[in-house]
Structures are given as C-alpha cells and as structure tokens.
C-alpha cells in the first residue's frame, strides 16, 4: 500500500491566545530586568552614596527634622485640609443650589482655583492680600497663610468631589425624608450629606496626600527656622553642608506619611467597590 504524499508546505503550529499572552509577558519581564541590570551596572554608586547617603550627616538631622520639619508639614496639611473641606462643602452646596447666582459664583471659583497653579495662589495670599489691604494681617502668621493657600486650592477639588457624592445618593433618600416632615435643609444635613461623605472618603483621603506634598510651597512665603517644613528644611541643610543627603532624608519623611495614606486610600476604595 502506497504512503500518502507529504504536503507541499509543513503545517506550522500556532500559539493559543493564552500562550501568546505568556510569551508577551515574558518578553516584557525580560526587558524590565535587562533595563534594571543596565542601570545597576552603569550607575556610579560610590558618587551617589557620597552625595545622597552620608550616614553621619543624616543622623545629624534628627530629631529636628521630625520635631520641627515634619511636625510643621503635618500642621500645614491638616489646617489646609480642614479649611478646604469646610469651604468645599459650601461651594458644593452652592453648585447644587437652585439659585442661579450661587451656581455662577461656585462655578467660577472651581474653574479659577483648579486652573491656577498652587504656587500662584500662595504668592497671592502672601503678597497680594497685604498689598490690597494695608495693615491687615492674616491670623496665625505663616500658619494662617499656608492654611488659606492650601485650603483655597483644595476646596475647588473637594467641592466637585462632594458634589458628585451628593448626586450619587439615591433621590429616594431625600424624598423619604421629606415625606417624614423633614425640611430640605434638615434632610440634606441629616440624611444626604452623611451618606455622600461615606462615598467620597477615598478621594478626599487622596486629596489629603496631595496636600501633604503641596505644603512644600510654603518656602515661597519666607518662613523662619521654626516654621520650616520638610522641603525647606532639607534645602537649607543641603546648602549648608554642600550635600544632598538632607533632601533624601526629607523625601523619606514624606514617604513615611504618604505611603500609609495611599494604602488607606486603596483599602477604602476596595471596600467601597465591595459595597457596590
């Protein structure tokens, strides 16, 4: 019996979609590792250590970098966040108001302060306000100026976040409260806003992280030694010692706060997704 003739073209085996995905991932991992190895081999670690990782110099920063710089950074951030939260809630309510001028004012505020760099807001608070109102001093000195500067910027973003949270609350909640005899204002304060805040806690926490980093702009206000925050503290010590180790230590102090906060944000977002 004769054998069947062999095909003119050999049959090539094709990879499945899963196999192609695995090959693609493997190539990406290999490229990533190759880049890391190239950086590790090419970098001059000795010079980097000498400029950024002087152990003796880093130890000299303590405890002042914690008791003064980090403490001031936390104070600036907290005060700005609280002011921004209160002002943001007011702006959000104006944005949702049935009174047209309230909506116009809220819309202009949001677009203005979201569009301007935070640095310009700090300069405006620190320079323009004293010029516009001679003899007027902002309560709290530098702390008050930073709180207002951060609060004005944060309020524009928080207002939109809170507005979205209020609109995410089912309308039936307001209707049920009104049917029980609640006034619109009382229903909003007692029923709608608490539910809205449970919805917007993750993005508000993320805003807190951003404010913590934006507090570094305080250096443009001209602060005293006791009012320095992390960035100003690190820059001053780096200039005095002609070494960048203080800046690296200041950056690690930022991470000491922002990394746990970011973890909290992810946990809150995951919990919110499960609730949905």
Largest sheet: none
Count the beta strands: 0
Question: What is the number of helical segments per DSSP (H or I, 4+ residues)?
Answer: 11
Q: Indicate the low-confidence ranges by residue numbers.
A: none
Q: Indicate the mean pLDDT.
A: 88
First-residue to last-residue Cα separation: 70 Å
Q: Looking at the chains present, what oligomeric state does this protein adopt?
A: single chain
| Percentage of residues in helical conformation | over 70%
Please render the helix and strand layout as text.
Layout: H1 17-42, H2 45-52, H3 55-60, H4 64-95, H5 100-115, H6 118-132, H7 142-168, H8 171-179, H9 184-214, H10 230-241, H11 245-275
Q: What does this protein look like?
A:
- The N and C termini lie far apart (70 Å).
- Helix 9 (184-214) packs antiparallel against helix 11.
- Helix content is 77%, strand content 0%.
- The longest helix is centred in the first third of the chain and has 32 residues, at 64-95.
- The model has no long low-confidence stretch (mean pLDDT 88).
- It is mostly helical and 276 residues long.
- The chain is built from 11 helices and no strands.
Summarize this structure as a short list of keywords or feature phrases:
about 280 residues; single chain; 11 helices; mainly alpha
């Amino acid at each position: 019996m004769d054998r069947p003739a062999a095909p003119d073209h050999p049959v090539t085996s094709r990879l499945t979609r899963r196999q192609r995905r695995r090959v693609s991932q493997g190539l990406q991992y290999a490229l990533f590792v190759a880049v890391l190895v190239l950086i590790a081999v090419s970098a001059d670690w000795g010079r980097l250590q000498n400029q950024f990782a002087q152990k003796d110099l880093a130890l000299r920063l303590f405890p002042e970098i914690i008791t003064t710089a980090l403490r001031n950074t936390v104070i600036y951030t907290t005060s700005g966040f609280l002011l921004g939260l209160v002002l943001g809630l007011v702006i959000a309510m104006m944005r949702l108001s049935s009174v047209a001028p309230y909506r116009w004012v809220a819309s202009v505020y949001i677009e203005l302060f979201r569009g301007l760099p935070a640095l310009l807001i700090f300069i405006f608070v620190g320079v323009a306000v004293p010029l516009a109102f001679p003899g007027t001093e902002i309560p709290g000195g530098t702390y008050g100026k930073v709180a207002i500067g951060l609060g004005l910027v944060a309020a524009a973003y928080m207002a939109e976040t809170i507005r979205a949270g209020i609109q995410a609350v089912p309308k039936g909640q307001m209707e049920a409260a009104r049917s029980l005899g609640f006034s619109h204002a009382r229903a909003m304060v007692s029923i709608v806003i608490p539910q809205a805040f449970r919805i917007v806690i993750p993005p508000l926490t993320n805003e807190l992280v951003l404010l913590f980093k934006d507090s570094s702009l305080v250096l443009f206000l001209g602060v005293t030694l006791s009012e320095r925050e992390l960035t100003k503290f690190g820059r001053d010590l780096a200039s005095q010692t002609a070494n960048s180790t203080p800046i690296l230590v200041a950056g690690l102090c930022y991470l000491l706060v922002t990394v746990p906060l970011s973890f909290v944000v992810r946990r809150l977002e995951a919990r919110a997704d499960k609730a949905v």
